[in-house]
Amino acid sequence: MASNGRELGGVFDHHVQRAVCDTRAKYREGRRPRAVKVYTINLESRYLLIQGVPAVGAMKELVARFALYGAIEQYNALDEYPAEDFTEVYLIKFMNLQSARTAKRKMDEQSFFGGLLHVCYAPEFETVEETRKKLQERKAYIARTTKNKDHYMTQKKLVTEHKNTKNFRQDFHSETSGFCAAAVNTSTGNSDPCFPYSCELPLCYFSSKCTCSSGEHVDRASNSSQDGRNHDETGEHCNHKDSLQKMQIKTLKNSVACPGAQKAITPSEAVDRFMPRTTQLQERKRRRQDDRKLGTFFETSTSSNEVVIGPLLPDIPKVDMHDDSLNTTADLIRKKLKEVISSVPEPPEDKLEDMHTSHSVKQRRRI
Amino acid sequence: MAQKPKVDPHVGRLGYLQALVTEFQETESEDAKEQVLANLANFAYDPSNYQYLRQLQVLDLFLDSLSEENETLVEFAIGGLCNLCSDKANKEHILQTGGVPLIINCLSSPNEETVLSAVTTIMYLSSPGSGSHPELTAMPVVQCMLRFSLSANTRLRNLAQIFLEEFCSPSQVAEARSWRAHSALGIPLPKTEAPQQP
């Protein structure tokens, strides 16, 4: 089949639809079944070949459908291209590569006028200039993206340094550089238990010629949320934190609270620190009760002077917790207390004290 | 198929890539290796993954896989390298770890995609004006590109032409032309080609 490819518009290997892979391990199965294929910048192209178009004179509709993904520069039918009976083959050239990529992803295997479209790239239609431009744009894109990440990481570095994490960050970098040297020398890389890779990632690829240069590049970020998966901009920093915690730098462990600049927590960090909010509330409540019990144990007088706010006040001051869900919870508790107070005066004493103590406690920081 | 690693959904991108690398190293199944390598090579397309890939030494994994007997693995590995080698840090790593001879070897592969990826990788590793790495514009490579530039395969022809125009000096090209007239070349064209007459 590939030998026909010599003429333009012949059938190439990369036009042929591969069979979908059905033997993938479950953890790496995607949402859609896909073939095993690697896409490089060589393969991708502004030119798309569309096979399986029912021969019902629907060229305009086809082009209109594809034009949803971006401006189309030209299109034509490929009459010489081998096609199944009653189907046609079209070539569509997009103005830019990204539109073509999107169109291919969305339109492949879509039904159209009763037939299933097979969309693939057709880089063999490119001119030398178009190929050259394509390669240059790819290079520029990568340079731009990594430069932005560097810039972002530098900025964030300044912010976090400002928040007195400066020293340990320098230590961290020197330690990882040290680790990398160690990793090169020792084939197992598990020699020193205080280095992050050996504890966290004993499973990175080691070859006989391994020279780990990642130490220099550890501070290069990958914090763009470009592919929008569960990794967000705090990824780099939180990875550091995760490793650092494992490094058991005790003095720094407490100071590495998520700085104010960071809002979200990556899942990796979440594994270490996540506790459901209700559990925390109950935890604090329990601790307050214990403290109070201890306090009253040592106190001789149990006069109402000890109580922060008297249980018999008719209304409880409403404090805004600056959080909708906490406010809702607080409102519910207040309502319940009002009901209980009105029915039984004595028992709610503790609860009320808790409530007021909890209200006088500093605003909870949202997890 | 392959045993399922215990991947906590909270672990995120790095953990997933790590699981892929682990499976690649541990599995006995060629199919699984191909699938995983293709997966990694596709991840190499997105710059946001580069720090993880470096951290997990996937670049070395790709370079090592170039020596595999399985042609599909070679194709995917060079594809992965092609995807990530235009990044400055990745480029330095490849150059420093002696990846260039391995990539040049791929030029003689019978697999069309492998050759195309190899040519593109060589281009991205070079700096214009043949400044960076002398191996990348050595005589055998230039001669090879000359042959490719006359091929009937449009994609190959285009790439070779760009290489000769942007990364070789005119004198190198002229020298390669004169050499061709006299010596037998050691780098065959990929199987998809009918032999070309100079």
Task: Describe what this molecule looks like in 3D.
The complex is a heterodimer of chains A (367) and B (198). Helix content of chain A is 46%, strand content 8%. Chain A is built from 11 helices and 6 strands. In chain A, the strands form 2 sheets. A 4-stranded antiparallel beta sheet of chain A has the order 2-3-1-6, covered by helices on one side. The model of chain A is unreliable at 1-6, 168-202, 208-272 and 299-306 (pLDDT under 50). Chain B is mainly α and 198 residues long. Chain B has 11 helices and no strands. Chain B has helices at residues 12-26, 30-43, 50-55, 58-65, 71-84, 88-96, 100-105, 112-125, 139-148, 154-167, 170-182. In chain B, helix 1 (12-26) runs antiparallel to helix 2, helix 8 (112-125) runs parallel beside helix 10 (154-167) and helix 9 (139-148) crosses helix 10 (154-167). The N and C termini of chain B lie far apart (50 Å). Chain A: Residues 228-241, 348-357 have a biased composition (Basic and acidic residues). Chain A: Component of the minor spliceosome. Within this complex, interacts with ARMC7 and PRPF8/PRP8. Chain A: As a component of the minor spliceosome, involved in the splicing of U12-type introns in pre-mRNAs. Chain A: This is RNA-binding protein 48.
